């Protein structure tokens, strides 16, 4: 059904804007005959298919579910919030299958996870996937994170080979991605002060902050690079109107720009991009800080970075969440007659999306 020649197309990374599914074919016995396999499959707008990663191993149920949860977190960190994969888990028939799925789904609370109840013979289910492989529409992402030779070998021996888990997982991912669900967007109510046009968002650098004078109560968010590059000390503007300060550590990186170098250590941080980008936890920390009730209420948010894309991207997201007019709400501390426009491109798409998405995670 599969030939080795089907899989000679290799790439360093799949398109970031592709749609993704992570499909899990689960086994329940450690060191038993069957394996657990989780295939991350992406489909590009052109209709090409990319096998980005395959997790494969023999684990007891609790350990297996921990691997599934850890994988979901890694996928979200790299592709979220708008391009993270939908998770599908094979649902075995019977009450034991129901209980096993419920247990795994509880572990994945907060992730888009769905059960799949496959029917029919494995060979029949794999035929559509095999057709795309034969047509040379399938690319393997060769980034050193998964066992490509073993994956190809199992496909070439299918269906007569002893192991079928990775093929089942791949064909399951393909079937779900063909009919991928779209994710809805939450709409948030407006802040009263935003409606009245009083809230200002000021974007500045550390140097500009030192000489800036604010005429209304404000909150300060300082964005700095992770160590050893960043400056962990919080800037201290001399103002009695400062209501609170927060330091956020992440680099000015967008996963869409570094897919081919995702697993490479970035100098001078000495870490990979996954450890440096803005995360969901950082976004939640930001909104928890901004939305905390204070008396008096802040009339401005001051967002400070090192003159790069981070603060302005956060400002655009905050503005759009609160439905403020960008041109009337966002200011740069440059003295120039600059105005943001509603149609402006987001400087750092990752920072913009993560800031916007995490508002709904903070009550």
Task: Outline the fold blueprint.
Blueprint: E1 10-11, E2 19-25, E3 36-43, E4 49-57, H1 61-79, E5 86-90, H2 94-107, E6 113-116, H3 122-134, E7 138-141, H4 148-157, H5 165-178, H6 192-195, E8 200-205, H7 206-210, E9 218-224, E10 242-249, H8 280-291, E11 300-305, H9 310-322, H10 326-329, E12 330-332, H11 349-358
Largest sheet: 7 strands, mixed
Q: What is the CATH top level name of the largest domain?
A: Alpha Beta
Note the overall shape: elongated
Q: Please, how many domains?
A: 2
Annotation field: number of helices: 11
Distance separating the two termini: 52 Å
Mean pLDDT, nearest integer?
87
Strand order of the largest sheet: 1-7-4-3-2-5-6
Order of helices and strands: EEEEHEHEHEHHHEHEEHEHHEH
CATH topology type of the largest domain: Nucleotidyltransferase, domain 5
- CA gyration radius, whole angstroms: 24 Å
**Derived structural class:** alpha/beta
CATH architecture tag of the largest domain: 2-Layer Sandwich
Q: Find the count of extended strands (DSSP E, 2+ residues).
A: 12
Q: Which parts are unreliable, with pLDDT below 50 for 5 consecutive residues or more? A: 181-197
- Tell me the fraction of residues in β-strands, as a range: 15-25%
Helical proportion, percent range: 25-40%
